[in-house]
Amino acid sequence: MPATRLDVALLAYTPEPLALVYAAFRQCYHAGFVADMWPRLLAGEISREKQAEFVAGVISSGHVSPIEHVSFTFAVEGVSRALTHQLVRHRIASYSQQSQRYVDASSFDYVLPPAIARIPEAKARYEHFMAQVADAYRDLKDILETNGRGTKAKEDARFVLPQAAETRIVVTMNCRALFNFFEHRCCARAQWEIRALADKMLALCRMTLPEVFTTAGAKCERLGHCPEGAKFTCGKYPPAKS
Amino acid sequence: MPATRLDVALLAYTPEPLALVYAAFRQCYHAGFVADMWPRLLAGEISREKQAEFVAGVISSGHVSPIEHVSFTFAVEGVSRALTHQLVRHRIASYSQQSQRYVDASSFDYVLPPAIARIPEAKARYEHFMAQVADAYRDLKDILETNGRGTKAKEDARFVLPQAAETRIVVTMNCRALFNFFEHRCCARAQWEIRALADKMLALCRMTLPEVFTTAGAKCERLGHCPEGAKFTCGKYPPAKS
Amino acid sequence: MPATRLDVALLAYTPEPLALVYAAFRQCYHAGFVADMWPRLLAGEISREKQAEFVAGVISSGHVSPIEHVSFTFAVEGVSRALTHQLVRHRIASYSQQSQRYVDASSFDYVLPPAIARIPEAKARYEHFMAQVADAYRDLKDILETNGRGTKAKEDARFVLPQAAETRIVVTMNCRALFNFFEHRCCARAQWEIRALADKMLALCRMTLPEVFTTAGAKCERLGHCPEGAKFTCGKYPPAKS
Amino acid sequence: MPATRLDVALLAYTPEPLALVYAAFRQCYHAGFVADMWPRLLAGEISREKQAEFVAGVISSGHVSPIEHVSFTFAVEGVSRALTHQLVRHRIASYSQQSQRYVDASSFDYVLPPAIARIPEAKARYEHFMAQVADAYRDLKDILETNGRGTKAKEDARFVLPQAAETRIVVTMNCRALFNFFEHRCCARAQWEIRALADKMLALCRMTLPEVFTTAGAKCERLGHCPEGAKFTCGKYPPAKS
């Protein structure tokens, strides 16, 4: 029942993502059929640089929908139910999450917030409490099973599990949804845990498809100023005048 | 810090919902403009019965999208974070939820599962544990504030709050999304808490717009058989043969 | 078979929209239950000004989701199929459109682009062509009916109808989707016809819910600069430096 | 300016689609982390048959969301604007369509409905009309350019283009959206053109991921009866009793 740590794996992404985004953009303005151009794209007849330049130009003009054709699928562990409750509020995405109704949590792991980890007194209090939770979960599961609740015992016992309880989730988002996710969650004002997740996801996206994700991140990185206003800004960029 | 109970209030819904659904359906098949028909609809020139009959006929033929034009907004309290985590997985909807980052939870209320409430030993264990949670939350919040975490103390302390912790949420869904929600969540296989919520929401919808919601509910109510299969059926309807 | 003109009617909107948006925002930050506050809101105990100020403050800080709880339903006529094909690309919305498969188009009306209307030679050519379309539609429908195609004759004959052919559509969008729609379609770079529609819809929204729609419109109106870049800007606002 | 014919190319799909769907399903019920299982899946340690059996079992129990993690991207040509206007009504999808504002249509191709092709008189009338359209388009474009409308001439001239005018579009849908698309559009009641597209897309999906798409198609194929009712059924399956 130890504290856990964030782990993000990129399970899959749409193959040839730059070529696909390029082809989708081209179809909008081009008299021919991109399926005819596709084999030449895969054969490298149009250079990656040229594709990237075209894509960057159209995106910067505000036409972003073609990046939706490319999706990324991540497997995430070492995150809390507090995080996933926030995460699944992003509606243009697909989720498959470990179920507390079906998976036994008798020896659940938990997320330890850094601010608590840094203060020995807080950390001790937190760890002491997590042991109390595990006791309560096991006790309740036992009592419920003894009283004939069968496989539903987990379903009721889990009401004692903390927001901190570790969960695992598979997440698929397309590039446009990812841009939106990063705008909100890479911001210094985002809650620390989901921000750490967003930063890791962005790093994986940048590694895989740098030509598209170069401008992704908190809103300020793209705008050059902070839209959160003077009261809330982290100070990295000057706030927008109003 | 007592156990709480489910409360659902219908804050708002699209006015003249039957007439609006009727008008939207008519626009699909009608040569004229429904805005010209609208004042006559509001004046009652086409009877409610006739509108209902037309709407029921088109819905039963599989053309359901016009019911999307009508939305319902509910305010919900007395539900757990376990419930809202399931609820917000319904993506064609809008949510505004009480934030554990901003609202102090020192004397949080909690949901008591009926199966636990029925067993005195389980109930005592559960209540004892909830008092431990409140202690842990307050202790951690104190320590964090003492150590300069300020308004962020709540954000970290809430990691100890249980899935059972009460939350409040405002939910808007259109009728089509509500039909889908009821199909899944009014089923006897749905988890008890979200099923209780779905039943209350359905009762409010039926009271407000009976002509449309008469066929809403668990899938079996409409199909006349149970699509969950022989292994999972509750027995109310015979399972589908396969 | 004359040229038609744009008509937009606001059929319905969520009642008490400012109070509902205010209540949804308050639920996020408030320890109590907004359903308890709701009767007092309806009774005017919190002034419209105070509600508007609160709502404007939260929106400007970037928290906009609560405006989704309010929806507007418009009936639109005098628009072309070219327009509705663009319109229905806005996916967070509900549509009920007049069907060319079911509604006879023998004497269809059509949209006359202003640039064509302004040039007598172009206008004459356009009108001459529209008469040719009507002839072709009727001829084909006759031939198909004579050859036993029955009610499907309309379905095939409509292939000759022009993009200009008038259509009617019922559209529901929530406020957040409307903001997005206006950002793109009230811009001077938008195509003239959908821009005219967007301008009319915005005027109706502003009349109904001025407190929320005061900042809606093309992106530049909110930003104070033009994000389309030096090459595409209409010049109303200075382009963003890059 | 000849009649065109439908062409559908599968540009891309999520790699290892069966393994990904299997992994996402497993994450819901499994105590471990699917990222740890992933290399073993790719190495073939769990047979395709076993994966398929597990996936089929969970889908048939009504739990379908994990198939959303896999997307397919098609390039489509030889279809009419009538078709794409229907197609883009499917909102859980991404589209990049050839623009009539930017692409010159002076020698546009067009879709010829089979019912018209089969009747020589109808075919001749149709072809005669298409030549009239091309004349009108070129005349109007010329007049508008002569009168200083510049690159906007295409934008206005296209109002004369018929619903039959060929367009090209890149479409991405996830498997769950594809199932829904096939349910509606592979039905004998669907309009012939979009049904032909749906049939081709389904054939490509079945070839690529047979384990998942085996049960996809018109609703009747899965239900074993026709839900369209006695009045509308094509007769392939008996209508549902009501």
Automatic annotation (TrEMBL), chains A, B, C, D:
Gene Ontology terms, MF aspect: flavin adenine dinucleotide binding; NADPH binding; thymidylate synthase (FAD) activity; thymidylate synthase activity
InterPro entries: Thymidylate_synthase_ThyX, Thymidylate_synthase_ThyX_sf
Residues noted as binding dUMP in the record, renumbered to the chain: Q86, L87, V88, R89, Q97, Q98, S99, Q100, R101, R158, R185
Reactions this protein catalyses: dUMP + (6R)-5,10-methylene-5,6,7,8-tetrahydrofolate + NADPH + H(+) = dTMP + (6S)-5,6,7,8-tetrahydrofolate + NADP(+)
Gene3D superfamilies associated with the record: 3.30.1360.170
UniProt binding sites for FAD: S65, R89, H90, R91, Q97, N174, C175, R176, N180
Protein name from the UniProt record: Flavin-dependent thymidylate synthase
PANTHER family: FLAVIN-DEPENDENT THYMIDYLATE SYNTHASE
Enzyme class: transferase
Catalytic residues of the enzyme: R185
Record function comment: Catalyzes the reductive methylation of 2'-deoxyuridine-5'-monophosphate (dUMP) to 2'-deoxythymidine-5'-monophosphate (dTMP) while utilizing 5,10-methylenetetrahydrofolate (mTHF) as the methyl donor, and NADPH and FADH(2) as the reductant.
Cofactor binding description: Binds 4 FAD per tetramer. Each FAD binding site is formed by three monomers.
EC number: 2.1.1.148
Source organism of the structure: Fundidesulfovibrio magnetotacticus
A UniProt-annotated Pfam family: Thy1
Cofactors required: FAD
Similarity-based family: Belongs to the thymidylate synthase ThyX family.
Keyword terms, alphabetized: FAD, Flavoprotein, Methyltransferase, NADP, Nucleotide biosynthesis, Transferase
Pathway assignment: Pyrimidine metabolism; dTTP biosynthesis
Any one biological process term the GO annotation gives: dTMP biosynthetic process
Subunit annotation: Homotetramer.
Taxonomic classification: Bacteria, Pseudomonadati, Thermodesulfobacteriota, Desulfovibrionia, Desulfovibrionales
